[in-house]
TrEMBL record:
Annotated positions binding [4Fe-4S] cluster 1: C12, C49, C83
CDD domains: Radical_SAM
Organism: Sideroxyarcus emersonii
Matching NCBIfam families: miaB-methiolase (TIGR01574), MiaB/RimO family radical SAM methylthiotransferase (TIGR00089)
InterPro entries, per database record: Elp3/MiaA/NifB-like_rSAM (IPR006638), Methylthiotransferase (IPR005839), Methylthiotransferase_CS (IPR020612), Methylthiotransferase_N (IPR013848), Methylthiotransferase_N_sf (IPR038135), MiaB_methiolase (IPR006463), rSAM (IPR007197), rSAM_horseshoe (IPR023404)
Assembly and binders: Monomer.
Bound cofactor: record note: Binds 2 [4Fe-4S] clusters. One cluster is coordinated with 3 cysteines and an exchangeable S-adenosyl-L-methionine.
PROSITE patterns assigned: MTTASE_N, MTTASE_RADICAL, RADICAL_SAM, TRAM
Catalytic activity field: 2-thio-N(6)-dimethylallyladenosine(37) in tRNA + S-adenosyl-L-methionine = 2-methylsulfanyl-N(6)-dimethylallyladenosine(37) in tRNA + S-adenosyl-L-homocysteine + H(+); N(6)-dimethylallyladenosine(37) in tRNA + (sulfur carrier)-SH + AH2 + S-adenosyl-L-methionine = 2-thio-N(6)-dimethylallyladenosine(37) in tRNA + (sulfur carrier)-H + 5'-deoxyadenosine + L-methionine + A + H(+); N(6)-dimethylallyladenosine(37) in tRNA + (sulfur carrier)-SH + AH2 + 2 S-adenosyl-L-methionine = 2-methylsulfanyl-N(6)-dimethylallyladenosine(37) in tRNA + (sulfur carrier)-H + 5'-deoxyadenosine + L-methionine + A + S-adenosyl-L-homocysteine + 2 H(+)
Family: Belongs to the methylthiotransferase family. MiaB subfamily.
Protein name: tRNA-2-methylthio-N(6)-dimethylallyladenosine synthase
Compartment(s) of residence: Cytoplasm
Record-linked SMART domains: Elp3 (SM00729)
Alphabetic keyword roster: 4Fe-4S, Cytoplasm, Iron, Iron-sulfur, Metal-binding, S-adenosyl-L-methionine, Transferase, tRNA processing
Amino acid sequence: MLTKLYIKTYGCQMNEYDSDKMADVLHACVGMVQTDKPEEADIMLFNTCSIREKAEEKVFSDLGRARALKQANPNLLIGVGGCVASQEGEAIVKRAPYVDVVFGPQTLHRLPQLIAARRASGRPQVDISFPEIEKFDHVPVSQTSHGTAFVSIMEGCSKYCTFCVVPYTRGEEVSRPFADVMREVESLAAQGVGEITLLGQNVNAYQGETEDGDTVDFAFLVQAVAALPGVQRLRYTTSHPREMSQRLIDLYATTPKLAAHLHLPVQSGSDRVLMAMKRGYTALEYKSIVRKLRAARPGISISSDFIVGFPGETEADFEATMRLIDEVGFDASFSFIFSPRPGTPAAEMADDTSEETKQARLSRLKARLQELDQQISETMWGSVQRVLVENISRKNAQELAGRTENNRVVNFAGSPGMLGRYVDVRILPGSAHTLRGELVMQP
Ligand code: SAM
Ligand code: F3S
């Protein structure tokens, strides 16, 4: 009988990617198949996130439910991976003794061995080490469908923003060798994958070693990937404003395959707060990067992440963020209330802003972002957009869902034969963030 694997993923795209790798590794080594029904599972994995307190609490309440399933099926094996695992380690097994394996983002490739060791020894196994680049060497090549794939190019982060746990849970920046990245992209392109997203916590800090021992930067990698004939559209996430080199910006003028959309987290519009966050740029410097990007690629859409209620954020600081939002005209963005994370410097900073004030600021900021998002959608009404057809529409099985260059989903009537291909659709007036369109032609 086939062993069934259920994976629950929390948090960011890095975790989505890692969950796919867990499934790949367990499929390749022990022939496990994935199920979306927890009650059918022989193995349940929780790929956790500790970026904010809420995400972390959710894991422990879900683990409680898994325990009930294990009582009904004592052979069920429960694993906890990701950033909570990385931070808590053995403490997870102490708090939840029914957990069988604990592994970090850098040890997911050792899952088959950890599971075997658990079965052989009858004891929970914990491995949350950071074995440098080993993970990249041990994960099987991705199999994808529908024309788009993520390719991990680096792991971890060495920026140590004062609010963030990532450098502690995922370790410092480690880049994947240049030739390995190229080989993976070439193999994806050969399978018909035309859209590639280069993935990492801080992709533009990439410093990849070449086979002759040189080091190449992110702009070099982007250029090399874009030069591959099978690659039609190229994205990357996430990048840091401090690493937006002029060479990288210039590529927006010379490389049409680079999508006209960039997620560039700014966090705040107040220089005082940016300094306390240790972001390494001012609001003016951020705006100057945006101006250069727009000079290189007119119409490029910029999305961002914002934190409100950072310790000591005053009304004036918050207004500076609101001004920056208007000045830049951000596209669909994410915003969060500051969540103190144990072990980070910001968790120790004095914070006298009330929860109510923070909630009110978040609502105002979200409302403004929403308005801008809608305005950008409206500018697209009537235009023809080239979209990659990624899926059957979630709401209507007769329709397809495609993704525009500026990362919006468009639903339109079409045939499943178009999946994984680029088609042109005209955007219908009246639609919001998820657009509606009609097929114009298949290029
Ligand atoms: N380079 C990373 C990225 O964007 O993928 C940034 C790390 S984090 C996964 C994504 C976002 O979460 C950050 O840009 C920040 O806005 C938010 N974030 C990180 N730590 C936070 C905290 N302690 N409280 C609230 N939001 C936080
Ligand atoms: Fe976190 Fe700052 Fe790195 S937000 S992931 S420490 S760039």
